Amino acid sequence: MRESTDEIRSYQVWNGFDYNLQVWVQDGIILDCNHPQSMKGNGCCKSHSLAGRNILLTPGAEYVVETILIDGICIRK
Ligand SMILES: [Zn+2]
After folding, report:
1. CA 17 to CA 23: how far, in whole Å?
2. Which among 4, 37, 58, 66 could disulfide-bond with 77, CB atoms 3.0 to 4.6 Å apart, if both were Cys?
3. CA of 35 to the centre of ligand 1 (A)
């Protein structure tokens, strides 16, 4: 259950999918996409251009207000 649920910290997606930016986040860092290197060279998508950024410092990141606590982890409601 924890694997399929987004973890929220400071109102932003710390582990999970940010719907505003359309990127996956792991431990607060935006993950790179799985596109082939040939596509990445042409600026394939947002995941790639934002990869490695701290989600808390990335403009346009989703602001998640509705959350609940499960097992001490703050997740989307
Ligand atoms: Zn990509």
Report:
1. 6
2. 66
3. 5
Give the domain ranges of the chain: 2-76
Q: How does pLDDT run across 6-62, given as a tens digit for each residue?
A: 999 999 999 999 999 999 999 999 999 999 999 999 999 999 999 999 999 999 999
Is the pTM higher than 0.85? yes
Q: Residue 36 Cα, ligand 1 centroid: separation in angstroms?
A: 8
Dihedral angle over CA of 37, 41, 42, 48, nearest 10:
70
